[in-house]
Specification:
Shape of chain A: globular
Distance between the termini of chain B: 17 Å
Bound molecules: flavin-adenine dinucleotide, zinc ion
Strand content of chain A: 25-35%
Helix content of chain B: under 10%
Oligomer: heterodimer
Strand order of the largest sheet of chain B: 3-4-5-6-7
Largest sheet of chain A: 8 strands, mixed
Structural class of chain A: alpha/beta
Structural class of chain B: mainly beta
Helix content of chain A: 25-40%
Number of strands of chain A: 18
Amino acid sequence: MTTEHGDADAYEHPPWLWRTPEPKRSYDVVIVGAGGHGLATAYYLARNHGITDVAVLERGWLAGGNMARNTTIIRSNYLWDESAALYEHALGLWEGLADELEYDVFFSQRGVLNLAHSLQDVRDSVRRVEANRLNGVDAEWLSPEQVKEVCPIVDVSPDVRYPVLGATFQPRGGIAKHDWVAWAYARAADALGVSLIQDCEVTGIEVDGDRVIGVQTSRGPIAAGRVALCAAGHSSLLAEMASIRLPLQSHPLQALVSELLEPVHPTVVMSNAVHVYVSQAHKGELVLGAGIDPYNSYAQRGSFHVIEHQMAAALELFPIFARARVLRTWAGVVDVCPDASPIIGLTPVDDLYINCGWGTGGFKATPGAGWVFAHTVATGEPHPLNAPYTLDRFATGALIDEHGAAAVAH
Amino acid sequence: MLLIPCPWCGPRDEIEFHCGGQADVAYPADPHVLGDDEWAAYVFVRDNPKGPFAERWCHAAGCRRWFNVVRDTATHAILSVKLLDGTAVPA
Ligand SMILES: Cc1cc2nc3c(=O)[nH]c(=O)nc-3n(C[C@H](O)[C@H](O)[C@H](O)COP(=O)(O)OP(=O)(O)OC[C@H]3O[C@@H](n4cnc5c(N)ncnc54)[C@H](O)[C@@H]3O)c2cc1C
Ligand SMILES: [Zn+2]
């Protein structure tokens, strides 16, 4: 793969973490998309189910999609039982992940604050804390003074436009290094025999009667016993290749980082109301994210006014950032479901499985999503944790409406 | 950042507009005959193409009128503009 630097060899991914095999003409399982979810699914297929004749097909480079673009916030403080169970399962796996994969992922449990700025925010937040506790998820309600203790640089004075009235706090939440997570899963999956094939775009899905039998790719046809889609923002396009319409819309979601700073920000702060989320990366950049652009787009760039808005919100909360310089901004393409929850499970086509609709929040789920999706692909049945996340729920009405706890207004 | 041509006010910055999603999604002609799957498709499923996409916009901070735009979701190019009755407007 050549890079914009022109020197192909010098900028190759470290070749020693995984092999780069030629695609075979057939596999037991083909996974589309080598983001975090595709890689974790491949790893757990091999590790938990002994299925190793697996190829992960990636149109670009390994984990170059949303995996490389997200703000890496990890938490499990969702409102509904279905969500708490799934995200908490993931969080439990995060806590043992570096040991399990024998590779560091820099999971830093520095805690996550979700700020409340209105009486309605306060009521919703306190309700969520209680719901979390009933589900065995660590959660606390903090007063503004306690917020200040956890994160001294937050302005909790009452005379700002949207004063901080308190916050939920999940001490076990935090951040990880997304690249290292991808590399750790890739290395471990490769060691178990999985083929990771980059620069291989899936251009068609072959269906015979009711069953999937393989895929067409930019590197030729590949037969498959089962096909598992983990294509994040591009899931609609893939599903359409098998004549399936998904209740998804793809939107740009942006993030930005500041120049490197001394450690100033000890935790993760999210605010749904003024709409920004901020942490400080291990190296020292402030990492800021906000909401999606309102219109559909696959362009991997968003609007400038969204950045302006999020920086204004950040400055209101953190006056200390006033002179920090922006180093870089970028966007990913996220697929949003009408109920702000993912779809993980079977499709109308036999042996074709789908994992999509994670919207703005799927990184935190990476280990858990891979675990339950591997179970679904291996057994042909959903794992109890992803059983509620069916495509059918839009027809049955059993929605998992997480707009509030998704913590990102979309 | 999009520059959106309002048929009445001319090209304006996207922050003046509200995006209303896919255009031309008709209410079911005979709602009584629809089953759950068909209702789900009508309520929840919209096209999500990479390429030309017909969508509705409202000039919310201007004349407050609705119109339809075909926009390429890969390039953001605005390909055509129509009034709600289908009359084409020079973009
Ligand atoms: C700016 C931003 C901030 C975010 N912040 C957070 C956060 O703080 N916390 C959190 O939990 N989540 C966050 N997310 C969401 C999270 O990144 C995604 O939900 C998650 O990464 C999706 O799963 P994935 O890693 O597999 O997706 P991706 O990494 O996008 O993987 C999908 C892969 O499929 C490939 N692909 C697509 N089409 C094809 C094809 N036809 N053939 C072959 N390959 C194909 C793509 O190239 C891509 O590599 C954020 C996302 C963005 C964009
Ligand atoms: Zn107008």
